[in-house]
Design a protein that fits this description.
Number of strands: 0
Strand content: under 5%
Radius of gyration: 19 Å
Distance between the termini: 46 Å
Number of helices: 5
Structural class: mainly alpha
Shape: elongated
Number of domains: 1
Length: 109
C-alpha cells in the first residue's frame, strides 16, 4: 500500500510554488553552511599556524584531526545544500591533502 500526501503538504518542487516553510528551510541551510565554513576555516588556520610555529607532532595530529572533522561537517552540509562537487571547496579553503586523507575516519578517544 502506498501513501500519497495531500496536495497542501507537497513540497515546492512538486507543485511549483515556494512556500514560507521552503524559504525558512533554505535560510537555515544557508546559515548552517556558513557556520560550518567558518568552523572549517578556523580549524585550518589553527593548523597552519601550528605548522608555522613548529609545534609538536602530537599537537599537530590533534589539530589535523580537528580540521578533518570540521571539513567533514562542511562537506556534509554542502551536500545537504545540493553542492556535490567538493573540488571548489578544497580549492577555496586550501585544504591540505593530509587533512583530506583523514576525513570520515573514526578515531578512538
Amino acid at each position: 500500500m502506498s501513501f500519497k500526501p495531500p496536495a497542501s503538504l507537497l513540497s515546492s518542487s512538486q507543485n511549483g510554488l515556494i512556500t514560507p516553510l521552503d524559504l525558512e528551510l533554505a535560510g537555515e541551510k544557508a546559515d548552517a553552511l556558513g557556520r560550518a565554513g567558518r568552523k572549517a576555516e578556523a580549524a585550518l588556520v589553527a593548523l597552519a599556524e601550528a605548522r608555522a610555529e613548529g609545534s609538536a607532532p602530537a599537537d599537530l595530529d590533534a589539530l589535523r584531526d580537528a580540521a578533518a572533522d570540521a571539513v567533514f561537517a562542511l562537506t556534509v552540509q554542502r551536500e545537504l545544500c545540493g553542492l556535490r562537487n567538493q573540488r571548489d571547496m578544497v580549492r577555496h579553503y586550501a585544504i591540505p591533502s593530509d587533512v583530506m586523507a583523514r576525513i570520515g575516519i573514526s578515531r578512538r578517544r
